[in-house]
Amino acid sequence: MTASTSSDSHLLTPVDSVTVNPFLYRVDDDVTFLELDAYRSFPSQHVLVLGGAGFIGSHTTLELLKAGKNVIIVDDLSNSFSVVVDKILLAATVWCKANDRKVPSLRFENLDYRSQDLAALLDEYAISGSSALRSRISGVIHFAAFKSVSESISQPIDYYRNNVCGLVDLVALLDTYGIHKFVFSSSATVYGTKADLGQPLSEYDVVHHPESFLDRHGDVSHATPGVTGLTSPYGRTKYFGEAILADVAYSAPSKWSIVALRYFNPIGCDASGLLGEDPRGVPTNLFPVITNVLTGRTSHLNIFGSDWDTRDGTAIRDFIHVSDLARGHIAALDIKIAEPFRTFNLGTGNGTTVAEAVSALEHASGRKVPAVLAPRRPGDVGSCVARNERALSELNWTTTESLQQCALDLWNFVSKAAVER
Q1: In this predicted structure, what is the pLDDT of residue 9?
Q2: Strand, helix or coil at 128?
Q3: CB-based contact 364:409 (threshold 8 Å)
Q4: Which runs of consecutive H residues, i.e. helices, occur in 24-143?
Q5: CA 213, 216, 222 angle in degrees (round to 5)?
Q6: 158-208, pLDDT tens digit by residue?
Q7: What pLDDT is attached to residue 3?
Q8: Which of 64, 305, 362, 408 has the most CB atoms lying inside 10 A of its own CB?
Q9: Backbone angles phi, psi at 169, to 5 degrees
């Protein structure tokens, strides 16, 4: 194994006069700084965030820095932009200065997590032991999956290759380096058509090993492995990913600690307005699509399905503020789980229709959103709402932000971005 030779390695330093780690240096496009030997021997622990420049990854990285954790971002920028990393650091610096905290270290590597360069990066943080490698990377959060339901239907091979094959190779590589704390970015799509039953979804609705639990009446129930009605290749990749991780964790329970976080519908952005959802290409998530309409990039919003069995005919979703979601990852990293593998829903527990979400953004922006009722899309379900008691009791995590705050924060980001342009 060799040291990293990536030309896109960036050691970033906070701005202004905040007290900072002396081993960090910014690398500009026209200036080259070699990493200091002092940095290589720096004893602190680090969290590796794969896909850390994306929407959820960037907000989670910011929350990690606020929590005092050193972070290494790996991202190939296939669905994000390098400027996001600068904005993460700026937002963290401002927050740390306001709260009299030192800014932890932040490093950015522009590479595909499936490439051989990842092993070279892990080499830099490896600690040789008598029998096996250990690492100064204390945990990994994996956001580097492809995530569009519609795209997965048209490009299933790409999704299986990246989301499933890439995950298998990644876990094997981490095991080689003695890195066994792993947080997996999963999805409520693993519940398939169970979402259409109209009941909030529990982690026990999809399990990978037999589990017993107390139901709402206090009686012992048994959950058997299996899944019902997965509606897209994307959903299948998330289910397969969880199943693989569960099998790996239970094969060596004394060393692995793996948490799968089942996201519902992240929206909003950091209150600073510096970070938001800004994917490359055409957005597919509801809120960035609406903002494209509000800012005139597109003429109208297509509301897919107006004949669902809901209060206004539009689909029901559990919209969660992305900063709340990000803080769930910090809780998942810090928790000592009783089993080697554990799943958690990250949602509010409240259902909002698409029409209600549109109304919230109209209120925040003071503008009308032209909308067209369109047929249902392949892979969609009519309702998807979380039961979040497990996250509440075991992660000591709960949501704090309302739908209205999500809309206000998003419009703040959009307004700042418009001024910058």
Answers
A1: 63
A2: strand
A3: no
A4: 37-40, 55-66, 83-98, 117-124
A5: 30
A6: 999 999 999 999 999 999 999 999 999 999 999 999 988 878 999 999 999
A7: 38
A8: 64
A9: -65, -35
Q: Which two tokens stand for residue 409?
A: 């924060």
* 191 is annotated as an active-site residue: no
Alpha-carbon span 356 to 317, nearest angstrom: 10
On the CB side of 237, CA atoms within 13 Å amount to 28
Q: Which two tokens stand for residue 210?
A: 């037999």
Q: Which residue has the tokens 């904005």?
A: 87
Residue 355 identity: A
Q: Coil, strand or helix: which one is 187?
A: strand
CA distance 231 to 263: 16
| Given the residues 234, 239, 250, 263, the one annotated as active site | 234
Token code pair at residue 261: 């976080």
Q: What is the pTM of this model?
A: 0.88
d(CA 73, CA 141): 10
Q: Is the distance from CB of 14 to CB of 89 less than 8 angstroms?
A: yes
CB 403 within 8 A of CB 358: no
- Alpha carbon distance, N-terminus to C-terminus of the chain: 44
- What residues of the chain score a pLDDT lower than 50? 1-7, 15-42
Q: What pLDDT score does 7 carry?
A: 42
Element (H, E) at 48: strand 46-50
* Polymer length in residues for the chain: 421
- The whole-number pLDDT of residue 33 equals 30
